[in-house]
Design brief:
about 25% helix; 16 helices; 3 domains; Rossmann fold; 5-stranded mixed sheet; YbaK protein; about 550 residues; 9-stranded mixed sheet; globular; BirA Bifunctional Protein, domain 2; alpha+beta
Length: about 550
């Protein structure tokens, strides 16, 4: 590719709306351009990387028996209503205004539609089907460039099996394929247990990269390798110690005290002596949740306990349900279901709200005063707590999700009537798995892990080009002739080359662009070295420079492979 005729619109300045390295560098290097919030065009250089990643994915998916499809992004809404996912996705799903169609955020329904009535016998399975295709999600706050967009490219795969054991085997095949894909792409990643969310199913795991730009929060133990999304992560923490003697409950006037910190300051107590109350609405009925001190409710864990529709109570509902506003709510005298976190199981001598504004109650004994209380793991874990597996210290940090694999089970087959007949002539729903990779996220995450103050640092195999050939004065005939000869000769020897043959760009401008674009090797053809039969080679990863004889160039390139 010759830069004089290529569309690579590099930028000197950092775009004002870009804050994370991958977003900044993809815009500055002319790889992407924003069309609207969360909507990006991939320009030729960026799309070249997408094609490289896609081909790696294809090779690894084909190696486990995958068959590639290309499915429509425009789906009949009735297919999604059959699995109740129109409601599950809510506002995240794009709807066509004047037609009963949706833009697909994923493709479980369509793949199941194709399996229905065709995959009819146990002899027709196992099957692994996949595609690399555009998806649409109406993200409320698109951010981070292609990391969180409203339109994105995804590899989604689906397995169809007759038994749960065969699903396990398909799941393991995809796990291995994903590791191969991310290893080949040169990514540093880890795998975490995760919530299945709107996808459903019995088990899921996420492939993550650590990054401050991430929207996921994960817990990771360096000692034993335990990792889990914060939505499902567990830790070992000290529980409230039950005192040998329980006090009687008593009312306390607490004017203008609304938070746990304010209560502790007012009463001169430790937060571990308090029980914080939150009210949720579950299928139309209130549920009181009790947490220790400032511990926060993990709503994913709560949702797994309370299946169905669940949401925090609105402020105007609290007074009607409890008799008080937020900050003065507690379990004593409150009717309905009460659930507490394991950390305060059977605790006594606690302080909580009195269900009357500006009052709290002391001396609460859960065993004595709160009948039919239930206990579960409900809290969001924090850094510095102990690993649930090995008791070493656990770290909590931000991460980006690269891929997600799910054991779906029979949810979609049952919803859409996709059944098969076994060897005994009995009919069963097909057992499915679902496996996704954010293709453009792979590209962004690679850049997040491979850049410096000058720009991107590409390495094989994701580098758009092997060599960036720079002619410093393309108005001088000897440099033009040498660059043109090298450009052809390098390609004949199997190297992909981008040639900066621009006549109106200064040497400094060309060097800055070369570092910004970040190809693994730069070859500089300048008048001073060329007069001595030499050229300069620079390694982008180390910025190391070497002057070599022109007629020894290919020997040197072989050494650098």
């Amino acid at each position: 590719m010759r830069l004089s005729s290529a569309f690579v619109p590099t930028l000197k300045e950092v775009p004002s709306d870009a804050v994370i390295p991958s977003h900044i560098l993809m815009l500055r290097s002319g790889m992407i351009r924003m069309v609207g919030a969360g909507i990006y065009s991939f320009l030729p250089l960026g799309y070249k990387v997408i094609q490289i990643i896609s081909e790696i994915i294809r090779e690894e998916m084909n190696a486990i028996g995958g068959q590639e499809f290309h499915l429509p992004a425009l789906n009949p809404r009735e297919l999604w209503e059959a699995t109740n996912r129109v409601e599950a996705f809510g506002d995240t799903m794009f709807h066509i205004k004047n037609r009963d169609y949706v833009l697909a955020p994923t493709h479980e329904e369509i793949m199941t539609f194709h399996a229905k009535g065709v995959v009819k016998s146990y002899k027709d399975m196992p099957q692994i089907w996949y595609q690399i295709q555009t998806k649409f999600r109406n993200e409320a706050r698109p951010r981070g460039g292609v990391i969180r967009g409203r339109q994105f490219l995804m590899k989604d795969a689906y397995s169809f099996d007759t038994t749960w054991e065969n699903l396990d085997a398909a799941y393991d095949l995809h796990d291995k394929a994903y590791r191969n894909i991310f290893d080949r792409c040169g990514l540093k990643y880890f795998v975490v247990g995760a919530s299945s969310g709107a996808m459903g199913g019995s088990k899921s795991e996420e492939f993550m990269v650590r990054s401050d730009a991430g929207e996921d929060t994960v817990a990771h133990c360096e000692s034993c390798g335990y990792a889990a999304n914060i939505e499902v992560a567990q830790s070992v923490t000290s529980r409230a110690e039950r005192k040998s003697e329980s006090k009687d409950i008593y009312n306390i006037s607490t004017p203008n005290v609304k938070s746990i910190d304010e209560l502790c300051e007012f009463l001169k107590i430790n937060e571990r002596e308090t029980a914080k109350s939150r009210v949720y609405i579950h299928n139309g009925a209130p549920v009181l949740i009790l947490m220790s001190g400032n511990d926060e409710v993990n709503e994913t864990k709560l949702g797994a306990i309370l299946s169905g529709n669940i949401r925090p109570a609105h402020p105007e509902e609290l007074k009607e349900i409890t008799g008080a506003d937020a900050g003065s709510i507690g379990p004593i005298g409150l009717k309905g279901r009460i659930i507490a976190d394991n950390r305060i199981k059977s605790a006594n001598n606690l302080y909580s709200g009195a269900n009357k504004n500006d009052f709290h109650i002391g001396g609460i004994d859960f065993d004595r005063d709160v009948k039919n209380i239930e206990y579960f793991d409900l809290r969001i874990i924090q850094s510095g707590e102990n690993c649930a597996r090995c008791v070493a210290t656990i770290d909590v940090f931000k991460a980006i999700e690269l891929g997600h694999i799910f054991k779906l089970g029979t949810k979609y087959a049952e919803g859409l009537g996709a059944n098969f007949v076994d060897e005994n002539g009995e009919e069963h729903p097909i057992i499915m798995g679902s496996y996704g990779i954010g293709v453009d996220r792979v590209m962004a995450c690679y850049i997040e892990q491979n850049f410096d103050e000058r720009g991107i640092i590409w390495k094989k195999p994701l580098a758009p080009f092997d060599i960036h050939l720079i002619g410093l004065n393309m108005k001088k005939e000897s440099i033009v002739e040498t660059c043109n000869d090298l450009y052809l000769e390098l390609q004949e020897n199997g190297y992909s080359v981008i040639l900066d043959d621009r006549t109106d760009a200064s040497a400094g401008f060309k060097f800055n662009d070369a570092d910004l674009l970040g190809m693994p090797i730069q070859i500089v053809v300048g008048e001073k070295n060329l007069n001595q039969g030499k050229i300069e080679i620079k390694l982008r990863s180390t910025n190391e420079k070497q002057i070599v004889e022109l007629n020894h160039l290919f020997e040197k390139l072989k050494e650098l492979k």
